[in-house]
Each structure stands twice: as C-alpha cells, then as structure tokens.
Amino acid sequence: MPTQKIDFKEIQKQAILELARRDFFEYCKLMAGDFYKEDRAFLKSMCHELQDFYESKDPNDKVLVLTLPPRHGKSRTAGKFVEWILGNNHNERIMTGSYNEDLSGSFAKSVRDTIAEKQTPGIITYKDIFPNTDIKYGEATMKKWALEDSKVPNYLATSPTGTATGFGCTLMIIDDLIKNAKEAYNERTLLQHIEWFNNTMLSRTENGFKLIIIMTRWASNDLAGYILENYPKVRHICYKAIQDDGSMLCDDILSKEEYEFKTKNMNKDIIEANYNQEPIDIKNRLYSKFKTYEKLPPAHYIMNYTDTADEGDDYLCSIDYQMYNNDYYILDIIYTQESMEITEPEVAKMMTKDHVGYAIIESNNGGRGFARNVQRELKNLKNTHTKVNWFHQNQNKEARILSNATSVMNNIYFPVNWEDKWPDFAKHIKHYIRGGNNEHDDAEDTLTGVYEHPKPNNITFGYSSII
C-alpha cells in the first residue's frame, strides 16, 4: 500500500487555529497581527486578564474594570473579545454600551461583519477559526443580531440614549462612556451614566452574568469610579502611559517623543486623566482635605446652621456644631431630600439632643416657614434652650463657597468616622469641583454657612454656654 503523505503545513495550520480558539491573545495575533504583537507585553497581559476573568468560576469574580490610555486598543480589544467569546460559546448573550448610538452601532457592525466574512483561499478568516459560527439570516440588524443556531438574540449594542428593551444578557461590556473633558466636568452627565447603568443596563442581566467596564479615566465619580467605590470585589486592571520609572507603557504604540509632542500644549489635568488614569477632578476638587477629631474639646457655644431645600431635587442640610476658640466641631448632620413634614421634627430632635443654644436658618425659598415649624416642634419637645432665628441670604452662593473653602478646611473639624456617619454628605463635598457643573451644592453651602456664622461675641441674642 502507498504511504500516505503527511501534510505538515496543514497540521501546523490546524494547530495555530486550535490555539487561537483556546487563547484569546493568540486569536488577536492571528486576526490582527499588525497590532497584537508578541513583544507588546501589555496587550498580551490585557488579553490574558480578560480571558481569565471570563473563564473564572468564582461567583465573586463578577466585575472587571479595565482602564488604559487612548489609542492603546481598548475598543479594538473589546470587539475582538466579543468575536472570540461567541466563536466559543453560541449561547452567550452579550450587551455592549458606548457613549452614543453611532459608536455603539459601529462596534456592533464590526463584530457582526467579522463573523459573517466569507472564507478566502490563502487568508485565515474568522470562519477558519470558528467554522460553525455564522450570523442568522433575517436577524442581523447592525445593533442586534443572533447566531445561526441560537434561539435568542446573541448581541445587542446600546448607549445611554438607546434602548435595551427585550434583551437579557449574560455578559455586559461598557466601553468608554465619556467622550471629552466637558462631560468629565459635568456632574449631571456622570450621574446620568450611573443612573442608566443601574436602572437600564443592570435590569437586563441574567442570573450569573459578568460585567466588564473598559475606560480611559476622566473623573473619580465616572462609571468606573462608581463601580470601584460601590462594589466590594472588583478586578481592577490599570495601565498608565508613563510607568513609575519614566518609561512608556508601549514605545511601539506611543513613544516618549510622540507623547511629549501631543501633550505639550494640552491641559495638564487632561494629560493625567487620559494618559495616566488620574481622574480629572482630583486636582480640581474644591476641598482637598478635612480635619478630624477623636475627642471633643470643651464647648464654648453649641449652634446649628440650616439650609432648606430650594427645589424638588435639592437637599436640606442642617448641621449641629460647637465652637472652641475659633474652630468649629461638627456634632451631627441631617442631609436629606425628604419633605419638610419629615425634616422639621427631625431637625428639632437633633437640636434638642445636641443642646443647641442658637440656630440660624436661611429664610430663602420657604426657610422662614420651616424655621417657624421647627420652633413649634421644639416647643412640643419642651426644648427651652434653643433660640431659632432666620435670615435672607443675598450673597452669591458659589462665590461664598469658593472664597471660604480654605477657611472651611482649616477651621472645621469632623469626627474621625464622619464619612461613615454621613455618606451622602461626604460624597458630595468630596466630589465638588471648582468651576465645574456640580449637580448639588447644598452641603457646601451649609458648611460655608457654618464658617460664616457670626462669632458669638458679635451677637446680642442668647447662645447657650455650657462651659
């Protein structure tokens, strides 16, 4: 019998194809070898991290945040990852989110077209690696489509202005929601992203889903920051353009010379955010630090300053504090969006508990009525030691907040566990951006009012001294 000739080239080809099926980085090298090169170590590391996270069976290994500089393959790698996953698992249901409909549509179209590409002799295509994976005829719109052997849609692309109705996902990938510095400075936009994530995207997830956030960092309270702060167990992989030793993350993609040329006249905050993953608002936060105390000093006077809610979504902020020399020691805070029917008795109870001698309430936007009702509540509590007065605040709020910021940090003391005691209050004053479009300023306004509060020896009406 004639000896069968062994086709070593075909064996080698099949080995390469099998390796690409098993290893995500090898898939990327095979499909886009001009970018995914063996000597680009961070790309290899990133691909392996994504694959390890996806394949992990640990139920706590549910959320991955990946941050890296622009033009370093974020969206490209995310797209390749979707291709590779669907080639290996036709039952996966993937939802991707981008900052607008055009970008999300382009992302989806790129993945769909790669899977649908026909085989070409002499060129390795997707069909060579995953020959049994194809797009279902009649269910292949740009943003939503299914695989040939799937009974349900496998892919949906959306954005904060798009829709996710009727689709449940097992893997969610959110890719770069912030497009520029203007959005990074706009707290309302950042809050809308988080609300979209919580109210729309998470509601579309199936049991056992996994979440991947891929971003260039902009703000500490962007979606990546929100995830890192509010979810206890998160894989966080961060790549900076400039390494600690001054070298570049990947000279082949961004050399030191190119980096210096591109950033020569760029805003320094944007450089740190985009290239080194240092959120843009860290250096622009109004308050950089706060003083704390473990033990209260003797109290010369105990007082309260209250700013009632101006509009429906504003916060009432009421602060009890005591003075010792020229310093202010915070005792308790009410910071809430509850109605006045709830806050009036609560403020009166707090004043009574802390033995407040004098309380001043801004009379703007219903504050006078609030003050009178608090007086009534104090009387019901048989509190005879708290004198309540009100005044009209006619100075510019933002100017007051900005001009007194340094004095607030130098002269106001919080208890050491203040961030745990008043988390909403802490979140807002820590994230208030100088010159930014801040969603709320009620906490900052009231804290400023505490410092601006006239010194006791300049006031002719009764403080309660407990010396």
Task: Give descriptors for this structure.
467 residues; alpha/beta; eight-stranded mixed β-sheet; 18 helices
Tell me what the structure shows:
This protein is α/β, with parallel strands linked by helices and 467 residues long. The protein is built from 18 helices and 15 strands. Strands 3-4-5-2-6-7-1-8 form an 8-stranded mixed beta sheet, sandwiched between helices. A hairpin with a 3-residue loop joins strand 3 and strand 4. Helix 12 (340-353) crosses helix 13 (367-380) and helix 14 (397-403) packs across helix 18 (442-452). The longest helix has 16 residues, at 101-116. The protein starts with 7 loop residues before the first helix and ends in a 15-residue tail after the last helix. Mean pLDDT is 87; it is low at 458-467.
Note poorly predicted spans. Answer: 458-467
Major beta sheet, specifics? 8 strands, mixed
Helix content: 25-40%
Classify the secondary structure makeup into a structural class: alpha/beta
Could you tell me the radius of gyration in angstroms? 29 Å
The counted number of beta strands is: 15
Q: Looking across the biggest beta sheet, what order are the strands in?
A: 3-4-5-2-6-7-1-8
| Total of helices | 18
In short:
The chain is α/β, with parallel strands linked by helices. It has helices at 8-22, 24-31, 41-55, 74-88, 101-116, 126-129, 181-184, 187-201, 223-230, 256-263, 268-276, 340-353, 367-380, 397-403, 405-411, 418-421, 423-431, 442-452; strands spanning 63-67, 94-97, 135-140, 144-147, 155-158, 169-175, 205-215, 235-238, 291-293, 301-307, 316-324, 327-336, 358-362, 387-391, 412-415. Helices cover 39% and strands 19% of the residues.
